Structure formats: C-alpha cells, structure tokens
Amino acid sequence: xxEQAQRVLKDIFGxxxxxxxxxxxxxxxxxxxxxxxxxxxxxxxxxxxxxxxLLRPGLAVVVSPLIALMEDQVATLDELGVAAASLNSTLSAxxxxxxxxxxxxxxxxxxxxxxxxxxxxxxxxxxxxxxxxLFAIDEAHCVSQWGHDFRPEYLQLGQLAELFPDVPRIxxxxxxxxxxxxxIVTRLHLQNAERFLSSFDRPNIFYRIVPKExxxxxxLAFLGERRGNAGIVYCLSRKKVDDVAAYLCDQxxxxxxxxxxxxxxxxxxxxxxxxxxxxxxxxxTIAFGMGIDKxxxxxxxxxxxxxxxxxxxxxxxxxxxxxxxxxxxxxxxLQDMVMLKQMLQNSExxxxxxxxxxxxxxxxxxxxxxxxxxxxxxxxYFDEELLQPCGHCDNCIDGVQTWDATExxxxxxxxxxxxxxxxxxxxxxxxLLGRDNxxxxxxxxxxxxxxxxxxxxxxxxxxxxxxxxxxxGLADIDLxxxxxxxxxxxxRPLLRGEISLELRRDLKPQTTSKxxxxxxxxxxxxxxxxxREQWEALRALRRKLAEEHGVPPYVIFPDSTLLEMLRSQPAxxxxxxxxxxxxxxxxxRYGEAFLEVLGGAAEAPPVVADLRHELTSLARAGMTxxxxxxxLNCSEKNVYSMLAEAIGRQQLSLEQALDLPxxxxxxxxxxxxxxxxxxxxxSAIAEQFGTRVPEGVLYCVRAALAAEFEM
Length: 711
Ligand code: ADP
Ligand code: ZN
Hints:
alpha/beta; 17 strands; binds adenosine-5'-diphosphate; binds zinc ion
C-alpha cells in the first residue's frame, strides 16, 4: 500500500517523500480506517486525504467551510491532472445537473462541498447511490462551539458515521487545543479514529516582538527589508486598517485594506488580488483569516496585540505555509494592554468567561515580556515541550539582557500611590523625572517625595518599566476611570522589599533599515542578489501561465519549486522531473517553458514584462507616478510611458493610473478631440499646456482616448 502511495506522490504531486506522519495517515485511510489529523498550518494536510482518495475506488467527498478554500484546491488538483470539482452556490442549476451527471458517470474523483450542502437529504440520497472512496472533513475545528470559527452545519456531519458505516472518514485541523480535539471526536462520531498528532512547531517562522515606539516607522523599517514579498499587517480597528493601508501606499508599499466594514465586493476583490498578484501587503483586521491558503505569505506583522496566544499562533501561522523562511513580527506597548483590557471589560459574557479571557490575555503579555526562547514558551502553552531554545527567535539570537529593577519599580509604584492611583503613564513619568508643567503644578505633585527621584533614567526606560509592571500584573489599569494606573495586590511584597524584580532591558529601537534587530530574521529575502534576475524571470513566466489558466501563480508551481529550479538548474526534462513539486502532468505542460528560462534564452523579455506587471499593480494600489518611479527605480518619464502603454492595452484605467482633477482632465480631452478625424499627436497640443501638465499625463490621456475609440 505504502509503495503505491509513494508512486502517486511522485507521479501526480511530484514529491519524493512523505512529510512527518503523512505516510502513516495515508496508509490508515487508504485501508479504510478513520483518522483524526492534527497538524499545523503548512504541515501538508491536503495530501493526507488526496492520496488515499486516488488509491481507493469511487468518489472522495471533501467537506470544506469556504468557497475560496474549495476553489483553491480544485484549481491545484486540476493543474495536477486530477478530476476534481466543487459544488457550491456559484454554480447555476444547469451546471449542477451537469456536474451530477459527470459524477454518476464516474468522471469526477474528488468532490468539494460545504457542510450544509452535504447534509441536505437529497444530497445524501444521491451519494448513497454511489461508490464513495472516503469522506474528508477539513477545518474540523469548525465543529467546536467554543472556537471562533464555529459553523453550526458541522454539527450535522456526525450522521455520516451511521449513514456510511463502511466509508472511511478523516477529519483534519490545525487547531491544537485538547478541548477542541475532544469535541471533534464526539461531535463527528470519530471514537474509532486513530489520532495523528504532529508537533505544532513552525520551524520556518522567525518570531520577533518589539516594544512599540514609533510604530509606523518601525513597520516601515521591517517592510523595507522585505520589498516585493507578500504579507499581512494586522490591526485591531477598521479605522486603523484604512489609515495604515493609505500610509503604506504613500510610502511606496503596495497595500490593500481588508475589514468587515468594507463593501463585500471590495473585500472579495482585495482578497482576490492578494492571492493572484505577488508582493502585495494586506492590512487587515482579524476578519481576514480563514480561507487564506496563500502559501507564500512571507510575513505577518502585528501592529496591535492579539488577545490570546491562540490568536497569535493562528495569525502568525498564516506566514510561510510553503515551508520557506517567514517572519512573525509584532510591536506592542502599554496602550495595547489598556485597549484590550477595556474591550474585555465591556464585552458581553459572564464573569467566569471574562476571567478566562483575562488569563489568556495575561499569557499573551507574558510572551511579549519573556526573556527566554519565544518558541519554547509558545509551544509550552500548547502542552508541547521543546527541549532546547530554538535559535530562531529574537530572544535566542539577540540574547536578552535583564536588569535588577527592584528599586526603580518601587519608585514607580510609589509614584502611582502618592498621586492617588488615577494617572496615566505620561503623567507618572513626568513626576518621576521632575518635570515642570501645568498639570504637575495644578495638583501640587512637585511637592511629593517621589518628584524627580527618577532623573537618572530616560523617559523611555520609565515607560518600558511601567509597561512591564502592568504586563506582570504588579500594577493595574483602572478601567472604570480614565485608564490610569492603580496598585494591584500582588505588588505588596515588592513594595515591602520582600522580593526583587528582574526585568527585560529593551533593545535600542532602530528605525533605519540597517541591522537585523528591527525586523530581521536572518533570511528575510529568499534569493541572493546574483540570483535575482533569473528568479524574476521564473516568476514572470509563472505569472504569465497563471494568467492564461486563470489560477493564482502558486497553483502553477509553489515558490519552493521555483527556488529548487533556480538552485539545481535542471538542463533537461528528466532533470526537471526530479525537482520537488514537478509531477508528470506539470512536467509535460510546463517543463519546456521553464527550461528555456533557465537556459537563459528567454531572460530579457520576462524581466521587462515583470516590471510592467508590477507597475500596473502599484498603480492600481493608488500610487502616484512619482512614487512608482521610486519603487521601481526608474525615471518618471519611463513610468508615464509604461502607464500609457498599459492604458492602451486596457490593463489599467486612466483613473487608476492618474489622479487628475476633473476639470483639468476635461480640458485635456477637449484639446485632443478638438480637431476632426484622427487624434492629434501629443506634440501638437503640448504647447498649450506648457508646464501646467506634464507631458506624460498627455500621453496617458491620449492612450485612454485612443483605447476608447479604438483609433
Ligand atoms: P496544510 O493544509 O496543512 O496547511 P498543505 O496541504 O496546503 O498544508 O501543504 C502545504 C504545502 O506543502 C503545499 O505547498 C504542499 O504541496 C506542500 N507539501 C505537502 N506535503 C508535501 C511533501 N510530502 N513533500 C513536499 N511538499 C509537500
Ligand atoms: Zn528561540
């Protein structure tokens, strides 16, 4: 059995060996047994049901909660030459009938559908007339009422056990916690399933958490090292999402917003672009999440603190699904804590629930202030032990300095107490530093014993100290009042001098793009300088093929496969077949074309094509020609002429390319249309606009008119 499975793996998928427990899982299901698979994102869950589906006779039925996920998988299988289809609401009645007929004729191997569709009595009756290879229940944690992805329809999937007692069922999820696991087993009637639990470590993700100083600058520095890579920036509020996305565009980064407040079409369009284009940054609330199967998300950045380690793990986990190096970066500060605590306070739910949430938040804060290996702490929270520090997180590579903060902590707490436990950190720091301002004088705080006792430390050090006191629960935020600090019960022993306190020393914040401590994982770019050109050529070819086939680029080949081509430089089809990810079908379809690029023959044109493609992306993201010129490192004149070309080919609208005032646009259009017959050349009208309108603008307007009238 395993031998056959190996052959399918190589021939169809182009991979040499199974990863982790894939082999065992596939064997179990192929032989007809049930399985519960807990594997982290990117672990390779899909193969666990796709390979047995190909090994067993009949139709494999895959339950998936989102159309986007289904379509992604169907497109991927399609490219591999496997007959797959998804049955969803986007199909017309006619198309559904056709699909049913194809299924009856045995022409479909894998059918993807949503749970609510599967459990319709008519559907179940239909399936009972067929030979079913297996049922796969993807994202099985959706059955859990406690998780945030709860889908009531999943609860009905339990009946499959009774209706199809002889068909193996495999449930898969990347959600690790014990409670969800048990719920899956009971709700889906998987008592006889063998459990396959993998490590939840994501070794390719580099974790870094930095104190928030000037968050936007810090973010820019982080992004600056990752130009051209796709990533997600998470923010807490919709407004902040909009602001940050606009700011990034201003700064020359192609960014798109995503949150629940945007019209459904905009959201869908932005998501589609994120999947289909390369190098876009999605600025999003957590509404952007499940269903993002894009394998080459190179980084996830948090500008606000997630509310639990579960959320942090899940959100950061969207990076690096393809196994290549990826970054999880976060900036956090005291204000985050205030905000989250306030949200928690105001949330619905009973006291017990709030207490649980509070504990979860505390665990998140503890990770931020942690001095040991971040990965060890994170995995430990999910009941997994990592024996050695990972060597692949900020704490491991920078080394954390701690210092004895007992005395200053007491001074800080004393400042909280003496001022009446109602002021925020800003004022408290002013008191400690002995600053002279109106607020201090109004309240007579210059007369306090603590006034000015902290002059030997900087403002930043005091802020860091207060942040850590709150994170450790030694001071509390007064949520009924104005968010000032109060003493908490746990700080008494410290005040009485019974215990001492070691705190983390913040690294000097760096906002330049030099040096690795702002953002840098050791490998923030996948390819080295001298490989760049060929890499871009490979990507350009992939993009062209993807456009022709109407699929995202990663469906043609994942980055890891392109990277292996780049490094191993296959020179013949048989060498190409050895590259991981090149199966028989793809070899036949694309092998020659990629060999040609590697051989150097087709190098020049794709690079230019690539530049053009990037240009239209940037223009669509709302960048001005000057910004685009900066980003692409070419002259503005060049940008205008490429924009005009793109407009002429109708790849870009004039509105996307330029932001012209309406009356000026009308004036220019009139100038072109004044005469009879053909459009005059730009040179004929340039004079009348002088320096008022750049010549490049005229070219663009002319191109738009020409395209419109097909002249
Ligand atoms: P998950 O669903 O667990 O997040 P996927 O099934 O999407 O993960 O797999 C992640 C990536 O790893 C995909 O690009 C997939 O093709 C690749 N992959 C899976 N199994 C293997 C394997 N045995 N060898 C090489 N690549 C694999
Ligand atoms: Zn570590």
